[in-house]
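Action item from last week, closing it out:
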Amino acid sequence: MTKRTLHLPVAAQPSVESLVDLARLGERHGYERAWLPETWGRDAVTVLTSIARETDEIGIGTSIVPVYSRSPALLGQTAATLQEVSDGRFRLGLGPSGPAVVEGWHGADFDRPLRRTRETIEVVRAVLSGETVTYDGDCFTLAGFRLRCGPPDATVPIDVAGMGPKSVELAGRFADGWHATVFTPDGLGDRLEDLARGADLGGRDPEDVRVTFSLTACALEDGERARELARQHLAFYVGAMGTYYRESLARQGYEEEANEIAAAWAGGDREAATNLIPDELLDELGAAGTPDRAREELAKFESIDGVDRVAIGFPRGAEPSEIEATLEALAPDRR
């Protein structure tokens, strides 16, 4: 059975404690793991440390931290430390993010994202081994240092996020897992073929690469409110977050819709961009509506062969009470 995890809200929340409270609530309702993205709000490491200290069983993970905002060695140190403070409950999710964040927020060049991601994986693994790191890559060269503390007792799995064929192939070839988001069931199936091809190139069994699908969900008694929030969320990602999501939707057969949404957003008409998302597309990309309807849509994604985990995410405009209502309505202990 596909397990349910929790993708903590990408939008700013009232406090670190509010995120800790959501993780605690997720733990009580049986969610396997709490994932936290790192964008341009609170840093993921501090928040996940707080969650680790205030929970007992729920796993924690980054989904994702960009490979441009920290050096690979620091990412290895961070993974080792979070594995220690969580008593072995940590999973590291990495990804290139996109030019909008990397260049506009971090002031870094968005250069060779696939190569940088691969080398980051390799350096992080070398750091976590506890041995002296000697690495000579295209992006990074390291020599002469090792962790000053002991390496983690439990191996830290490394997942990679990706949307395009080559990035998903990379995950299959080098990572322990793939994080997927904003996919239709058919689109996800296409990328799972890329994942299997990557695993084959790496001489690995695709079954050994865990697939986590992050699904935007909103389950409210006011079903129309839930669907409107999910529409707004999707319009923001297609319109405001660079070209990746638009290109991904185009590959999945929604090129016209994606371009129209992006054009309306770029023109400053966010309401029009939101209204350009038809019910069919909304249902293909999320689980939103009344609790019963959201559960039906969620089941559709959980039944996809090759998906191991579904991470319940929330619309960026949802109020704290709406996030909690959705978390509870779609909780594993409510199956």
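Closing note: The first strand starts at residue 3 and ends at 7.
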